[in-house]
Amino acid sequence: MKTRYTVVLSMIAGAALGGAAIQGLHAQAKPKAYIVTEFEAIDAEAAKAFSSLIGASQKAAGGRNLGTAGGKVVAFVGDTPKRVGIVEWDSLEQAVTWRNGQGWKDLSPQRDKALKITQQYAVEAVQ
Question: What pTM did the predictor assign?
Fold first, then answer.
C-alpha cells in the first residue's frame, strides 16, 4: 500500500514540475530587436532639433535609443558610415510597427531637412 502512495505522489510531483517547466517556456520573452540607421547630417542645427523629436517618438513607442548617433564609428569591412544610430526594441514587431507608423511619417519634413539616411534596417537578436 505504501508503494502505491509513493508512486501516486511521484506522478503528481512530476506532473507539477512538468507544468511549471512548460509555463516557464511560455513566459520567455521574444528576442529583442534593433533598428540601425546609417546617416549623414545635412544641417547641424536641424539635426540637433530632430534628434530630440525622434528620441521622444521612439521612447513613446517603447524604443530605447542607445546613444550611438554621435559616437565614433570604425569600419572593419566596407566604407565607414558618417553616423550610426541604434535603437533597441522589445521585439521585431514593435520595431517594425514604429518604423511603419505615424510617428515616423510625421517627422518626415524635419528628417528630410536634417539628415540623409544612407541605410536603415531592423535586426532581431538571436537568443
Answer: 0.75
